[in-house]
Amino acid sequence: MNVRTSSAALAAALAAAVPAAAQDAFDWRQHEGATVEALMPEGPFLDAALPVIEEFEAATGITVELEQLPEAQAWDKIRVEMQAGSDEIDLYIGQIDRFGAQFSANGWYEDLLPFIENPALTSPEFDWEDFREPSRTVSTIGGQVVGIPIDRPGGPVLVYRRDLLEANGIAVPTTLEELEAAARAIHEATGIPGMVLRGSGAPATSQFANVLHEFGGRWEDAAGNPTVNTREAVAAFDWWGRMLRETGNPNATTFGFPEVVSEFVSGNAAFGMDGALAVPAVINDPATSQVAGEVGYMAIPNGPGGPAVRETDPCRTIGPFAVSINPFSEDKEAAWLLAQWLVSKDAQVDLLLTGRLVARASAAESDRFLSDPAVTAEQEYWDAVLEASSFCYPTVGNAPPSITDVGRAREIVGQVIVASILGQDVQAAADQAQAELEALKASQ
Amino acid sequence: MTSVDLAAEAAADLAHPPLRGPRRARLFAWLMAGPASLVMLAIMVYPLTNLLLLSLRDYDGASVTAYQWVGLANYEAMLADPRFWAALRRTLAYCLLSVTASLALGTLMAFVVNRRFRGVTVLRTVFILPMVAMPVASALVFEAMMNPNQGILNQMLEAAGLPPYTWLAHPGSALLSLVVLEVWMGAPFVMLIVLAGLQSMPQEPLEAARIDGATPLQALWFVTLPMLRSALATAVLFKLIDTLKQFATIWVLTEGGPLRSTETLYVYGYALAFQFFDVGYGAAILMALLVLVLFVSLLWMRVRERAWV
Q1: Which residue, of A137, A199, B21, B55, is most buried by count of CB atoms within 10 Å of its CB?
Q2: What domains does chain A contain, in order, with CATH numbers?
Q3: pTM, whole model, 2 decimals?
C-alpha cells in the first residue's frame, strides 16, 4: 500500500472543509478563568499532550492542573475516584477495553455526544466523522460516546531478520504455516531461536488475540459465551506454544513485552511479533539494537482461516486510549474544550509522527506526515503498519469481551498460553479455562 | 502569663497538691509512653481493624453497587477455594525450605567468619551485603541472572558442560528459584545472630571437651550447637515471620506464575485485591496469612520454651 495516495487532493479537501471564518467564529475563551483537573497515565500520550496543554492554556485562558501517574496507578486512581463519585478529576485518558463495560454499567462516563452535537461547545474543526471507523463504534457504548479515541492500536506486524532469511535461502513467509517452517529451519540451521513472542500468561493475551483470529477462533460466540476451547482456538493456542517451545524458546513463560524486545534487539530471534516490537525507533536504531539495518516488516501472514477471516470478520486488537470526562465533574464544558485540543488534527499528526497510529483518518494523509523524512526513511514499516490496520481494527477485547472482569479473564486465558508453551495438554488447559470463564461470566 | 493565670494555677495547686511517689511515677510513665503509643495505635491497630472489616464485606472495587456486609461469607468461600489451599501449601513449602536452608548456610558462614584469618573483616562485609540490598533490586538482578537464554547462571552451566536450567520459566523449578533468592537474602541475618552467639560463648566447655578427647565434630555437635540453641531459635523465629510474609521478590520475579506455581497466600491476596478488585475476598486471604504468621510464631515460641530453654 502506498501512503502517498491522493495526499494533495485530500489536503485541498480538508482546507475547503474548514473555512477560516468558522474557526474564528468559535469562542475558545468561553470558559476563561476555569480550572480543569486532568489525570493522564505516563507514556507517549502524556508526552504528546504536554505541549498541547500549554497551547490550550494560552488560547483559552483555562488553567489545566495535570496529574501524571504510572499507568497501573492511574487506572486505580480513576476507578477509586469514580467509585467515590468524586469531582476531583474532570478529564482523563483511559483505555476503553479496560474500563468500558464496567464504567458504562456504573454510569461513570459522561456522554459526549450532546457536546459533539452542540455547535456552541464544539469547534467546527473537530469533525467527529474524521475519527476512522470502527474507532467511533468502539467508543460508543449503549448509544453514549464514552470517550474520544486518541490512537488506533495497530494491526499485528511481523518483524523479521532479513539477513538470516537471505543467508538461509528462506523466502518471506506468506502464511503462518510457512512462518513456522521458516522459524524451524533457521533455528535448526543457526541455533538462533526462530520466533519470539510473549509467554507470561495474562500479558500475552492481547498479542495472542491476533493469532486466534487468523486461525478462525473467537473469544466468544454471538451470544457472548466464551469459546476458548473450540477446535480453532485450541489450534491457535497450540501454534503459539509450539512456535516458542520448538524453535528455541522453551522458557518463554517469563516473557512479557520487555523480554520480547530485548531478545529481538540482541539478535536472539529470527522473527518476532508484538505490539511493542514493531517500532523502528527501538529495533532499527543502532543505539538500541544490534540488528539495526537488518529488520524487515510485514503485516501478519494469513493463518489457516485464510484471507476470508479478515474480510468477513475483522480481527481484534486491544481497544484505543481515549479522552473521557468524569460525569461528576463540575467543569465539564471547560474539560470538553480541552478534549478537543488533545485530539485536534494537528495534535494527531504530531502523535502519528512519533510512530503511533492515531484515530483520525486525516493524519496519515496529511502533507506534514507524508513529507516527513523519518516516514520516507521507514517506508516498509509504514506500509506494513497501514496494511495491517486496514484489516485489523481496534475493538473491545483481549479476553472474552462480555466478561466485565477483564483482569481475571486475561489471567485465566493466560494459563492456556503458558500450558501450551510448557508442552502440556492444550485441550485440557483450554477446557479448564473455558469452565473458569463460564463460571466468571455467570457470577457477574 | 497574666496574673489571673498565675492566680488560677496557684488555686489549682492548692486543690490538687503536686503528685508524689509511685502515682507521680506512673503518670510520668504514661506521659512518656503516650505519644509513641498513639502512633502505634494509628499505624498498627487502624489498618488491622480496617483489614478485618474489609474482609467482612463484599467490596468489589470495580462496581458501585457492592459494598455490603456479608459476615463470614468471604471466609466460607476461602475454605472452599482450592486456589487458597494450594497457595497455603506453597506458602508453607516456601517458608520451610527457605528457613531450613538459610539456617544451615547462615550457621556455616558464621563458623567461617568466626575464625581469625587474613581478610576475615572483608569477608564478613561481603557476607552481610545481601541483607542490606533492597529486595526489589535484588529480585531484578536475579531476574536477569536467571533469564533462560541470556542469564549468567545458564551461561555458567553451559560453560561447565551442563544443560540449561529452567529457573523461573517452569512450574517445577520456579518456587525453588525463589527459595534460592530468599536464602541468599536471609542467610546473612542468620549468620549475624549465630556469630554474635559464637562470640559471646564461654570457651571453657569447649576446652574441657577438647581435653577430654572430643573430635572437632563431636565438640561442634555436643557442645557448640547446644550452646547456640537460643541464638538459633531467635534466628528461626525471625526468618519464619520474614519468609511467610515475603511478597516483593515473588511479585517482581513471577507474579505467582508460571501456571500459579509460585502463588503464595500474600501474592494471591494481593492479586485478588489489586488486580481483580475483589477487595473483600483479598482482605480475607490476607487475614488468613496474618493468622498463619501469628500461629506459627506462637507455636515456635512455645516449642522453644518447652524444649530448649
Answers
A1: A199
A2: 7-153+320-376 (3.40.190.10), 157-315+395-442 (3.40.190.10)
A3: 0.75
